[in-house]
Predict the 3D structure of the following.
Amino acid sequence: MTGIVIKSTGSWYNVLTDEGITVPCRIVGKFKQDNLKLTNPIAVGDNVQIEMEDADDTKGIIKSILPRKNYVVRQSPRKKHQLHFLASNVDQVLIIVTIREPNLKIGFIDRFLVMTEPYSIPAIIVFNKCDIYLPEDELVYSELKEIYTKIGYTIVLTSAAEGTGIDTLRGMLRNKTTLVSGQSGVGKSTLVNAIEPGLNLRTDVISEHSGKGQHTTTFAEMLPLSIGGSIIDTPGIKTLSFSHLEVMDIAHNFREFFARSGQCKYANCTHRNEPHCAVKSAVETGEISFFRYQNYLTLLDEVEDQNYWERHKDV
């Protein structure tokens, strides 16, 4: 029978079958994954074929994964030479951030977009906790909104405490499969509860000692919405790195850079020191955000600093 993976706990996967039955399943052997070295070969959102493995028909084995239309993958936070699926077959992504409590990490949004751009997955950037923003935070928000709106991303300002933006977000989620992710402590679970109160996701507070968020979601899980569609809730992210990417992967996934790259003198221009670079010219004239360009350069340095052979050896 076939079904969709709705929860992953590492060794077991809950599969909702086409008959509407949830079956705990495991995998046997290895799955070929387009040469990707993965800590979790199956993602929430995967359509799979299963067969029952016991006489009581209570547990199953995943036999195959049906073709994916897309997926979002990150470097494993624990095994830097491997990758970790966040989700597959999604219609859009909510990237939830806040400017205060915890403070927004410079570059986090651009790092996340590097994961969604390869499949052109629509990304909605949500600035949460606006009820606690100070005047200087509101200025930062206005600047970031202008930067990302200009290059085609949707921006939403929200506050679960005051209800700001909740109806707008609810409308955007209707009848879609949406990956919900963001930094630890940004209020993701609280925001989702405001959108769909019946889910009752567990929430936590910011650590007074570190000022950082605490994980409240342990495993990725697909949750149905009463308005139609579903969300894929994922654990909060503390850091994002990209040992599996090359310089040109970064260059191609900054969308406004890629759009101008055809005007560069060199086809493999990295938009750093090359002469007659259309991207650098656009930065100088203000057509491309200097903020985005700085984040881009930081990512390039990070990718190049990771030893090539370390990143390509079999693990």
